Amino acid sequence: MAQQTGSKLFKPEQSTPALIAVQSAKESDNTVAAIYENIKSTDHISASSTTCTVNESSVEEKELDTESAHQYDTHMLQTFDTLQSAMQAVSDYEENTISNFVVLEKKKNFGNEACPVNSAFKIHWYGPVVNNISIVDFTGVPYTIVGRKVLNCHLGKDLATSQKSRYAEKQAITQTEDHHFVRHRQLYQCTKKMDCAAKIYIYHFLTFPDFQIKKNSEWHRKNASKKLKNCVQKENAKGVHSYVVLFPKISDHSNHPITGEAANLREKIDPRVQKKITELYRAGIRKKSELRRLIEHFVNNEIFLGLDVPEGSRRRFFPTRKDISNVIGRSKHLGHGSVLDQSMLVQLVDKWKMDPSCSIFCRPHSSEESKEEIHFLFLYQAEWQKKLLVRYGNQITLLDATYRTTKYALPLYFLCVRANVGYAVVAAFVTQHERTNSIWRH
Ligand SMILES: [Zn+2]
Question: Separation of 152 CA from ligand 1 center, angstroms?
């Protein structure tokens, strides 16, 4: 956080005019009007487009000891020049407060600095107000809101309730059908969501410092707005992008622990640790215990070299064996030539075809818009199977479907004959659908 320029920290003990405005608004009406009236009465116009008084030294303190833990028990408002530095501040906040945030809402143009200004854009001089806090106080500089992104605590509102109930209904139906073979875990808690209300608001502003007004009156604002709109239409208004982040109070988290071992266990894995696990795995280290030992060494001697090492229960830095397996699984997937099973199969078939003793046919699925859809078909027959089919297949040939008894979704068929010592599989094929046209030659 220290390297970001223009970082501002919102501290209640500092009696700035803007802050008095916010506090008194909280106590009184809690409305935009109240805040604006208070700001007007303080006659606070500064040259900067940021809202709160700077306390650079407090931004530099990041460690979560008893004293600085109180630092997070207040709303923090910070301004950044780039989206990258704003997102870095969010991830630092997550690390310092042992929390995780997920995207709840994101406007279309948020973060898109190349996006042209809409001709119907709205000019703001102060606001918006979130949790009774004005994101931007009046500074005389006009701006427009490009977009907004809201992050919610990962234990926040469950947004997928209808999706989950649909899935449960579908599962209940499939359970009653024949040949159902899906293993289920016993879930004692159906969701991790706890309806926590903590949210991070990130606003993307485009400010126009060239149109700053000296006096806050309706005439001045209208006049400047008119000039600005004209210049924007002629495309000669120079805008500056900025990002304002409103962090929640640590006490905004509700219904779940925020300190101690229970909170430590709910953390996500630090990206630096994830990267290290992938590197070690690619270097040939396969044993989980060895990987854990090396990660511990990496955290203690590289990430926290000369600093206080976090507790061993913090999953962010000391992942479990299962976490390590998951990271490896994901990295393996990325390392493959293709993520699609189908193209992997085509590559394998080419390899198998090197062996002349078996016959293989593979037709990948294709669904190009202009052409007719081609269904997937895979056939396999070994030399010995051919011989058995010729010898015993003249009287009776059976078709055995194993559809839905395997863990794969595609229907698998076996062609069988009764040989002198019992039934034998003489060919196997996999189709896309259980339909006749799936085995037609296109
Ligand atoms: Zn929470």
Answer: 8
Q: Ligand 1 centre and the CA of 258: distance in Å? A: 7
How many angstroms is it from 122 CA to the middle of ligand 1?
34
Q: Which long-range contacts (CB under 8 A, 24 or more apart) does 285-288 make?
A: 288/321, 288/324, 288/325
Task: Judge whether 415 and 398 are in contact, CB under 8 Å.
Answer: yes
Domain ranges of the chain: 17-156+196-252, 268-335, 341-439
Please give the distance, rounded to the nearest whole angstrom, from the Cα atom of residue 180 to the centre of ligand 1. Answer: 39
- Of the CA atoms within 13 Å of residue 3, those in its CB half-sphere come to 7
* Residues contacting 54, CB < 8 A, separation 6+: 7, 8, 9
Q: How confident is the model at residue 181 (pLDDT cuts 50, 70, 90)?
A: low
**Positive or negative: CA dihedral 259, 263, 268, 269:** positive
Residue 154 is which amino acid? H
Q: How far is the CA of 186 from the centre of ligand 1 (A)?
A: 26
Predicted model pTM: 0.60
Tell me which residue of 108, 129, 263, 107 sits closest to 196, measured CA to CA: 263
Per-residue pLDDT tens digits for 204-252: 999 988 888 888 888 888 888 888 888 887 777 788 999 999 999 888 8
Distance (angstroms) between ligand 1 centre and the Cα of 99 equals 7
Q: What is the pLDDT of residues 370-394, one digit of tens each?
A: 677 788 888 999 999 999 999 998 8
CA of 255 to the centre of ligand 1 (A): 7
Whether omega before 128 lies within 30 degrees of 0, making that bond cis, reads yes
**Ligand 1 centroid – CA 242 distance (Å):** 27
Distance from the alpha carbon of residue 4 to the mean position of ligand 1, in angstroms: 26
**Distance from the CA of 97 to the center of ligand 1, in angstroms?**
10
Ligand 1 centroid, distance to 256 Cα (angstroms): 6
Per the DSSP assignment, residues forming a β-bridge with 413 are: 401, 429
Residue 116 tokens, joined: 């042209």
Amino acid at 423: Y
For residues 229 and 8, the model is more confident at 229
